[in-house]
Amino acid sequence: MAKTTMIKAITQALEDELKRDKNVLVFGEDVGRNGGVFRATDGLQDKVGEDQVFDTPLAESGIGGLAVGLALTGFRPVPEIQFFGFVFEVMDEIAAQIARTRFRLGGTRKMPVTIRAPFGGGVHTPELHSDSLEGLMAQTPGLKVVIPSDPYDAKGLLTAAIRSDDPVVFLEHMKLYRSFKQEVPDEAYTVALDKAAIKREGKDVTIISYGYMVHESLLAADELAKEGIEAEVVDLRTVSPLDEETILSSVKRTGRVVLVQEAQRQAGINSQVAALIAEKGILSLEAPIARVDAPDTPYPFSDAEMIWLPNKQDIIEKVKETVNF
Amino acid sequence: MAQKIDFEALKTISPSEIKPLQVLDENGKVIDPNFFPDLSDEQIVELFKQMLWSRVLDERSTKLNRQGRLGFFAPTAGEEASQIASEFAMEKTDFLLPAYRDVPQLVLHGLPLEKAFLWSRGHVLGNEYPEDLAALPPQIIIGAQYVQAAGVALGFKKKGAKNVAYTYTGDGGTSQGDFYEGINFAGAYKAPAIFVVQNNGYAISVPRAVQTAAPTLAQKGLAAGIPGLQVDGMDALAVYLVMSEARKYSVAGNGPVLIETLTYRFGPHTLSGDDPHRYRTADEEAKWEKKDPLVRLRTYLDEKGLWSEEQEEAYIEEVNEQINEAMKKTEQAPKQKVSEYLQNVFVETPPTLEEQIAKFAAKEEA
Questions:
Q1: Predicted TM-score of the model (pTM)
Q2: Interface test with A, best of B106, B141, B147, B356 (most A CBs within 10 A)
């Protein structure tokens, strides 16, 4: 057990799985010699060889096609999309091919593919690097969409994703890569892909979030506690399909709920969670479902992103509105 | 047998030197005996029979579609040399990634005919592929099969398998980004893939000249650093020669090959309302009908006394019987249950989906 960053935890998970199963293949742009632009695959090619960790030509759809073909020939592909904002180039391979190959073949084949990609705002990137596009993925049947919020979960969830026989889109928030360390076991372990986590217990209100916004939510909860409001913070971890049980039981306990996402408001994860609560948990609500999110514009110019992105203060205000309703 | 085609030289050929390769001229005469595929008389008869099978299947499928007994169908008549002779050169353990017109290859590769019919009708059983069938169902997204073929080929290379991935698209497909990504990836990895472009002159209605300023589609291999060649797609022996030689070259670890077959579809794009006379002339059609690949190969067989009218009639009857049998099985397929095939979305079905499956199960029981 040692304290480590999320990026190191991800590298550990990749290394463990590459060594455990020779059919695991890690590939993408710059993942070989360079170890990835964020160093997620740092040193892996030296450790397990070029057969298992290799660079690709610079074309995302080609990377997706490789994943399909390699899965069909018995491999367990773990492709990296360098930034998830580039996913549009590989949308067909992910949404129309990987996600539905098993279904299309009447359940006779499987697609054990884990697509990793960095995403998320607040790190001052050029355009189309930071977008939160998990909603697009969540609307695609056949995909599991996983977004860790800390090093422990990142390692366990990525290990589970690679071992899963279903396709997983695994999104890594760039702001979390090196922002803090956490105790992470040295040995391999898995965190269930179908379970949300309660990251802070509280009785007055439930904050439901995922990715980097879990941290803004936890910071908000700390401040709210000083004012006597005990917020429970639920980390979805897998944003599709949702762990309905954890969501509904928390809402039932607190009777109030604030949904927090970094993505734009329209048709995102928050909307799905809100619909679920409205459908199956409305009788336990003492206030309307509240949402904190980004405005419905394309991702902004980076010098303005901190104004555009939702933050702790937005969450505190929304929680107070909800509690005082 | 010595290699008959110098693939390495094709990597640097000048585009103006790319000419369609022929084995038989339009009268069925062998052009150069030294340039003849390694096929016995029996094998050539078998190849012809498969082409005839495909022609009969095309005619019957068209009728069955009109009768409402088949659904989606993309006619294949005219393209038998391109489709069947290319399949004829492959092994069962090679991996086929077809486009939607390539159903005959799929069946010859091992897909039971009734499954091809069930696919056409939109039934899940048509897509439940036997475990040992090395193929994907027909691809609808033009070009997607090209990037996937690169992946299958890389998988074969990593496993040390002596097999190729082979895939088909049309002339229009070469305009897609995936076309370039596929041939480029396979080239960069020296992966054993054979990319076939069946250039039938039209992408539905858009003529070949509108797709690209390049005078041939084969020359697109040059940019990827892989051999590209053109073949008379109405000449079954030429297609077989090129495909079998390409397979040998590729399996030996030399990387992928791009093959452009010059062919023509006698019928419409699909039976879903396409009228070819909106975009091509009767003169042009008549010109191509004279190049009928079946007639050319039959002329060759006739002259060698390898095939007769009686044999042909008997064989057509046999094929019709086979189609009737398959159709019978098709029409006996059980009604589809959504509650059953929803379970195919994931290996591990999540609770949210279980709930929806249960709803359908209840509805289907009522």
A1: 0.97
A2: B147
